Amino acid sequence: MRLLDYIDNSQASCGSATSMADAKVWQPAEVVMNPEQLERAVAEGGELSILVVHSKSDSAKMNFNVGQHGSLRLVEVFLGDSFVECNINQQADSECDIVMIQVAGAIADYTINLDGGHADNRLRAAYVVGDEERCRVSLRVNHNVADCTSDSLVKGVAGGKAVGEFNGMVYVAQDAQRTDARQTNRNVEIGPDAKIITKPQLEIYADDVKCSHGATVGQMDGDAIMYMRQRGLSEQQARRMQLEGFVADVISVNGEIGEALKEELVAKLEKL
Amino acid sequence: MLSVKNLHASVGDKEILRGINLEVKAGEVHAIMGPNGSGKSTLASVLAGNDKFAVTEGEVSFLGQNLLDMSIEDRARMGLFLGFQYPVEIPGVTMANFMKVAVNEQRKFRGEEPLTAGEFLRMMRDRSAVVELDSKLTGRAVNEGFSGGEKKKNEIFQMAMLDPKLAILDETDSGLDIDALRIVATGVTKLHTEHNATVVITHYQRLLDYIVPDYVHVLYKGQIIYSGDKTLALKLEKEGYDWLINQHKE
pLDDT > 90: what percent of chain A? Predict the structure, then answer.
């Protein structure tokens, strides 16, 4: 099922029995299509799970505040060439889990502020662009206070004459001791005309921190393709399977929506 | 089943295979031994169709067809299986998914209907038992985070799933502890019938205690310099290759 079909089907049941209690199948409590402005506050100890879809060429500003011990799960999907700024402020002991996919020439610009001790942020994202599309993911994670954790993994595939760009920044303030921050960007370029630009950066002012960042840009793994072909897959099947595997493992949500997100990625990969 | 005549192959301008002759019939087990760098793995790769190597001379027929004209995948679909010396990790692709596509591609090639989900699951269960493969591994990404032993068991599991006519096992015993070696080798023996054939490439006689070969060939500098029965492997284990190499030089 494609994502928009999923949304049509689930509109009726949305907001009723939400799923945070039922950890097995994830369902958002709220689905928002093409917002221009979106503000949500998660109360102290509260929970919010939300799916935001951008299917048009417009721009949006989103703000999330997650109170102490609060929990936010955001799934954001770019089907159109939108430009979206998203700010997330997290208070002490809060959790935020973001899954984002871009299958269009969109721009996603995230700023995450970890403002209270032991706040935890996890982001998993993938972009797939083809033809002459250009997409960008900017991610700034500000460790403003001590004892926070962040873990970001962004994967990209560019085919045709497309350009995929990642700008990452982990900022660790002077007082933010015992920060544990990870940021990784991995990419595959398909063909000679595709281009990946990646700029992972660290800015660290504290001295007792664990930070890692890394970026890779590679081609398809020829040995893996040979291996799969030796089992009987065509070269094209092997390539597609490898790419699907590469990007789809960022989708940490399960259930119908997880499947719908994978379908969006697969459909896009098939067009490359 | 497989007939190799005067096969020459090179990588770049370096000739690695210099005239291999080999006949393998259904029901037979052949062992290929030889010192490091003699061309054993190259022979396996060339037969599988790895395009890193250029075939410069010779002929190979497999089940009556010209093997060298076929793509890697068509060789596989015809029933040629290569157990890799270094199985490749494929992140994000589960074993179950990979095998489902592979099995159904091979069925399609033979004009058979794809397996239903139920049939496929039963097959996975049955065949993973052949090599005592932990069923959890089939839900994981192909070879990712598998131990050395698990990777090799996984090769034989795939062989069990695909039921090849000819299996070429490239140093399937390397890096295995004694128990894993027994399990892998017993698995290969279980899969052997009078309708299929196995070529094992190995450095050690101990694998051949389980997989008893009909023929043992010694490869040296890209040629088979000597062939014998299973007692040859025992002699090589004791005496090394020098006597053969000296004999060959004379």
Answer: 78
The residue type of B219 is L
For tokens 């060789």, the residue is B75
Distance CA B216, CA B56 (A): 26
Is B194 exposed, middle or buried (CB count within 10 Å of its CB: 0-12, 13-18, 19+)?
exposed
Q: Which residues pair with A62 in a beta bridge?
A: A38, A86
CA of A260 vs chain B CAs: smallest distance (Å):
17
Chain B environment of A227 (Cβ under 8 Å): 84, 87-88, 90
> Could you tell me which residues come within 8 angstroms of residue B122 by beta carbon, excluding any fewer than 6 positions away?
none
CA distance A42 to A48: 6
How far is A252 from chain B, CA to nearest CA, in Å? 12
Residue A136 structure tokens? 């960008």
Closest CA in chain B for residue A262:
B92
- A237 burial via Cβ count (<10 Å: 0-12, 13-18, 19+): middle
Q: Give how many domains chain B has, as a whole number.
A: 1
Q: Which stretches does DSSP call E strand in A161-219?
A: 163-172, 180-189, 195-204, 210-218
Comparing alpha-carbon positions, the chain A residue that sits nearest to B47 is A230
* Domain extent at residue B136: 2-249
Q: Are B8 and B175 in contact (CB under 8 A)?
A: no
HSE-CB of B3 using CA atoms within 13 angstroms: 7
Pick the residue from chain A with its C-alpha nearest to B92.
A245
Pairing mode of beta strands A149-158, B14-24: unpaired
Q: Is A207 exposed, middle or buried (0-12, 13-18, 19+ CB in 10 A)?
A: exposed
Q: What is the DSSP letter of B176?
A: -
Q: What is the pTM of this model?
A: 0.81
How many A×B Cβ pairs under 8 Å? 77
On the CB side of B208, CA atoms within 13 Å amount to 26
Could you tell me the CATH number of the domain that includes residue B215?
Answer: 3.40.50.300
Question: Inter-chain contact A229–B71, Cβ cutoff 8 Å?
Answer: yes
What residues have CB less than 8 Å from B91, skipping those under 6 apart? A245, A246, A249, B141, B144
Beta-carbon separation of A229 and B88 below 8 A: no
- pLDDT for res B19: 95
Mean pLDDT, consecutive 10-residue stretches, chain B (250 aa), reads 96 94 96 92 95 94 96 96 94 92 95 94 91 85 90 94 96 88 93 95 88 93 92 88 85
Residue B174: predicted pLDDT: 84
CA distances from B177 to B150, B153, B202, B249 (A): 11, 12, 15, 36
